[in-house]
Specification:
Flavodoxin_fold; 205 residues; two-stranded antiparallel ribbon; six-stranded mixed β-sheet; globular; single chain; NADPH-quinone reductase (Modulator of drug activity B); alpha/beta; 36% helix
């Protein structure tokens, strides 16, 4: 875990909203990295405290080997991730859509971290406590598919998964879902416009 965008003064913990950026791309560099940095710069300019979890730099097994039938010891990086999620008031997930869903690394992170007793607690048939209630989220999502095609032809499965069956299930309310794509044919001018948009989103955190 690290703070992101360290240029300039770092705000004190009590000065602004506590924001946790979760970078879900396993690549070393990508548009997602640049979008996360831009968002952080915007948020920091408004006095918010921003921390980063870059999943590609963390050490953990993304496979939940026995499902929830048996407990699986959490690695130190995952224990720290749970502490950071508890610390945060606002979560920002930045990730690409691959094969219509989130990258395997991000899915594995969610499987391992959002555990019963931490993120939710079943209380009966179709009843559960949402243990992360009170937190909000922004989603910054890159796609190679045109966003309109992803929504209307494919049904936006990655969006529905994250907003409804993951974050919503745990009580985290998604405030904004911002799409950036198609990425491959995008000009440098277009990419710079996306970075400015991400920075603006950060100022509105």
């Amino acid at each position: 875990m690290s703070e992101i965008g360290k240029t300039g003064a770092t705000p004190m913990e009590g000065d602004g909203k506590r924001i946790l950026l979760i970078l879900g791309s396993p690549k070393r560099t990508s548009l997602c990295h640049a979008l996360a940095e831009a968002y952080a710069q915007g948020a920091r300019s408004e006095g918010h405290v921003v921390r980063l979890l870059a999943l590609g730099e963390m050490s953990f097994d993304p496979v939940l080997h026995e499902g929830y039938d048996q407990s699986q010891t959490l690695e130190p990086d995952l224990l720290d991730a749970q502490r950071q999620i508890h610390w945060a008031e606002h979560l920002v997930f930045v990730y690409p859509v691959w094969w219509g869903g989130v990258p395997a690394l991000l899915k594995g992170f969610l499987d391992r971290v959002l555990l019963p007793g931490f993120a939710f607690k079943y209380t009966g048939p179709l009843r559960w406590d949402k243990l992360l209630t009170g937190r909000s989220a922004d989603l910054l999502v890159t796609l190679d598919t045109p966003p309109w095609y992803f929504r209307w032809i494919y049904g936006a499965p990655a969006h529905r998964q994250m907003v409804r069956t993951v974050l919503g299930f745990c009580g985290i309310k998604t405030r904004r879902l911002s799409e950036f794509g198609p990425v491959r044919p995008a000009s440098e001018t277009r990419r710079q416009a996306w970075l400015r948009k991400a920075e603006t989103l950060g100022t509105r955190a």
